[in-house]
Q: What sequence folds into this?
């Protein structure tokens, strides 16, 4: 149980392109999902908390117009990196929490984004 | 906000030896402390977690201890095996569940040599 699917796993695209990443909870409902960014050999940095049916909560320093988050259903959250530039290249990982008391975060496989 | 420090950043042990990774946190309100294992290019996987109402928890070769007074917690891996080689992250939050975000430590790269 508690499987989280993230797609795509790898994206290589030109500067200026917008890229959408999907995060799905496959066998449970998740009112909350989290989006992280991880630089090589570094820790996971929380970007935003995605809440089903409402606006995402962004961490300090994260541009909400740059990283658009939509959580339209209890099993799907999307992160769109708008007008991506080389400095946006990173490993993006989502996590989801099962809607029940005291459940841990379960992570997706991550998306490696490379902007040329 | 919460700040989690983790040591060491790298750790090399021989197969069969024990490995210990230590973390400290700053927010006394934190009550939930998970540990994640991440292999290269893979997802972080929860290996064990502890809540503040207990001081120690064990699962086979893995154990975690918590000292709330000192605000530190540790991961202990006994009888290490090559497949234990990975990056380990500690984390802290006010509680598990939907409303509480995790603050991660900086990670420890564990290398188990033959």
A:
């Amino acid at each position: 149980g508690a499987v989280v699917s993230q797609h795509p796993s790898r994206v290589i695209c030109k500067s200026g392109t917008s890229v959408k990443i999907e995060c799905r909870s496959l066998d449970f409902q998740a009112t909350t999902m989290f989006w992280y960014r991880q630089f090589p050999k570094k820790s996971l940095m929380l970007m935003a908390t995605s809440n089903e049916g409402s606006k995402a909560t962004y961490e300090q320093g994260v541009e909400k117009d740059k990283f658009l988050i939509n959580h339209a259903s209890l099993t799907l959250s999307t992160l769109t990196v708008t007008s991506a530039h080389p400095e946006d290249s990173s490993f993006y990982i989502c996590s989801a929490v099962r809607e029940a008391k005291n459940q841990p975060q379960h992570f997706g496989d991550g998306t490696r984004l490379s902007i040329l | 906000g919460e700040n989690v420090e983790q040591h060491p950043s790298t750790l090399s042990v021989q197969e069969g030896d024990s490995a210990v990774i230590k973390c400290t946190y700053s927010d006394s309100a934190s009550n939930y402390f998970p540990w994640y294992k991440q292999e290269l290019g893979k997802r972080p996987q929860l290996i064990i977690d502890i809540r503040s109402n207990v001081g120690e928890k064990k699962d086979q070769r893995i154990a975690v201890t918590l000292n709330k007074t000192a605000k530190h917690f540790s991961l202990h891996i006994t009888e290490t095996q090559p497949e234990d080689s990975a990056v380990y992250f500690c984390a802290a939050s006010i509680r598990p569940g939907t409303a509480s975000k995790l603050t991660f430590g900086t990670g420890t790269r564990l290398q188990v040599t033959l």
Chain B has no helices and eleven strands. The two ends of chain B are 41 Å apart (CA to CA). The mean pLDDT of chain B is 93.
